[in-house]
Amino acid sequence: MECDLQNKSEELVTLNPYGKVPVLVDGDTVIYESAVINEYLDEKFPEVPLMPNDLAQRAQVRIWIDFCNTRLQAAAGNIRHDHEVEKNRKRLAEHLATLDEQMAGKDFIVDDYSLADITYVPFFTRKDHYKVSIGDEFPNVKRWRERLLERPKVKSTP
Ligand SMILES: N[C@@H](CCC(=O)N[C@@H](CS)C(=O)NCC(=O)O)C(=O)O
């Protein structure tokens, strides 16, 4: 569902007690929190698997999803909302450095393309909102971003 976040509808707050988007309504099922929505969709459509089979790799995917949501996006969101901008710019640079190390010599963050890579796409497509540039100081993240944004499904998503 789409909604005005400055003027939240009652419907949004009823569907998601956190009052945030995204929210997925699938028949009688209501799901919020993007990581949970993504896992639900992955399990609902097993013909396009986006989680590895290996248990340890599945755990790695969840670790990098958590890193994106609780660290990278948290710092980026604070910058976007003008909250402690300098402190959060520093944090964001540290998180990008961590990611750059993780991405060394890799095409995707854990083994093959997975929900972990997908989780970073909104950050990469909206990076200008966060006043961040991903240049040669983060060469592995830069290549990974370009690789993800070239994917047809990512390109065709508004
Ligand atoms: N952890 C949540 C974060 C969702 C989130 O922060 N959404 C923002 C828009 S991108 C929002 O709804 N903000 C409105 C608010 O916090 O009041 C998720 O991954 O779904």
Description of the structure:
The protein has 158 residues and is mostly helical. It folds into 2 domains: 10-44, 3-Layer(aba) Sandwich (Glutaredoxin), CATH 3.40.30; 55-155, Glutathione S-transferase Yfyf (Class Pi), Chain A, domain 2, CATH 1.20.1050.10. It contains 7 helices and 2 strands; from the N terminus they run αββαααααα. Strand 1 and strand 2 form a beta hairpin. Helix 3 (55-80) packs antiparallel against helix 4. The longest helix is centred in the middle third of the chain and has 26 residues, at 55-80. The two termini are 14 Å apart. The model has no long low-confidence stretch (mean pLDDT 94). Bound molecules: glutathione. The site of glutathione has 8 residues, from loops.
Question: Mind describing the biggest β-sheet?
Answer: 2 strands, antiparallel
Question: What is the CATH fold-level name of the largest domain?
Answer: Glutathione S-transferase Yfyf (Class Pi), Chain A, domain 2
The residue ranges in which pLDDT falls below 50 over 5 or more consecutive positions are none
Bound molecules: glutathione
In which order are the strands of the major sheet placed? 1-2
Number of helices: 7
Give helix and strand order, one letter per element, not per position: HEEHHHHHH
Shape: globular
Radius of gyration: 16 Å
SS content category: mainly alpha
Proportion of residues in β-strands: 5-15%
What is the CATH top level name of the largest domain? Mainly Alpha
- Could you give the count of β-strands? 2
Give the overall pLDDT as a whole number: 94
Q: Kindly report how far apart the N and C termini lie.
A: 14 Å
Tell me the CATH architecture of the largest domain: Up-down Bundle
Q: Please bin the fraction of helical residues.
A: 55-70%
How many discrete structural domains?
2
